[in-house]
Design a protein that fits this description.
3-stranded antiparallel beta sheet
Length: 313
């Protein structure tokens, strides 16, 4: 596998039965199924499903009082830089779609050879960031010609507890069965390690997106997956007006010009929230148990283009 790091092979598993995969001249094969997997023309190992697989997910419907609005509000925080980051990213160029504040929460690789999974890697934009943190980068995608491994997020071709970091930016809105995929992300992550990502909220429909999620939806998805939710934050640089202008209202227009087109409305929106009857608005927000007391954060939550999250196993 020309693109795959040697350290990845022990982590590979059959996407059907999760048995270890053995090398053969044409790629790898599962000794249990048996099922063989070859290489793509670009040298990536193609571990996508060849036939139907049933993934069973049980939903436990709890009493209403089992989940309170305060549970979600407790983890809602502004997207701010970590005061003591584990990794210094000052020399790393800015990556599109990855806020620097979120990047500052990335963990450092705990040892040489630790694997980081970029779930839905696209064109490997996040590879330099993960490698700068000391990880061996593994990019999984379903169709990308740049991916390390081609695979399905609903049936990850990796053994349990294989990765020391999982990253997923702007992917879960495109997954048909996100409750299955989040369980898979939890399965392949080592205990105590981080799962960091972003999920679309008020972005327009794009690239076969299925489920754009509110902050409560992100919290519910992560908790269902088994994760401990540390924080959920609206991206202040990507409000709904900016997302809609650059992605839908003015397609193919230079982004700077598209942002300028909605700037007057955006400025009026901020002024209304900040200046008009401020005390009464603050009191109304404080009475709502599902929203933070901060007026600014409440505004960002209701108008966010996307939410960032930090969770751990």
């Amino acid at each position: 596998m020309s693109q795959g790091p040697e350290a990845l092979y022990p982590a590979l598993a059959c996407p059907y039965c999760l048995s270890p995969l053995q090398r053969d001249p044409r790629g790898v094969r599962c000794a249990t199924c048996p099922q063989s997997y070859g290489l793509t023309p670009h040298g990536a190992l193609d571990l996508r499903l060849r036939r139907e697989k049933i993934q069973r997910v049980d939903f436990h419907i709890e009493p209403r009082t089992a989940v309170t609005p305060e549970d979600v509000a407790a983890v809602m925080t502004p997207l701010a830089a970590h005061p003591r980051p584990e990794v210094d990213f000052a020399s790393v160029p800015r990556v599109r779609g990855l806020p620097r504040a979120l990047m500052s929460h990335f963990p450092r690789a705990p040892q040489t050879g630790a694997l980081a999974l970029d779930l839905g890697c696209g064109k490997l934009l996040h590879r330099p960031v993960c490698e700068h943190a000391g990880f061996v980068y593994v990019g999984l995608d379903y169709t990308s010609d740049h991916a390390t491994v081609l695979g399905d997020a609903h049936a990850l071709p990796f053994a349990d507890n294989s990765f020391d970091f999982v990253l997923s930016l702007g992917v879960f809105e495109h997954i048909r069965f996100p409750f299955v995929a989040v369980r898979e992300a939890h399965r392949v992550l080592r205990p105590g390690r981080k799962f960091i990502g972003m999920v679309a909220f008020l972005e327009p429909y794009h690239w076969s997106s299925f489920y754009h999620q509110t902050h409560m939806g992100v919290w519910n998805l992560l908790r269902f997956g088994g994760f401990a939710v540390e924080r959920i934050s609206p991206d202040p640089s990507w409000p709904v007006l900016t997302a809609q202008a650059t992605m839908a209202l003015f397609p193919r227009m230079p982004k700077g010009l598209a942002r300028a087109m909605v700037f007057p409305v955006h400025a009026a929106h901020r002024a209304w929230w900040s200046l008009f009857d401020r005390v009464r608005w603050l009191r109304a927000v404080r009475r709502r148990k599902d929203m933070p007391a901060s007026l600014g954060l409440a505004r960002q939550i209701t108008t966010a283009g996307a939410f960032a999250f930090i969770a751990s196993k």
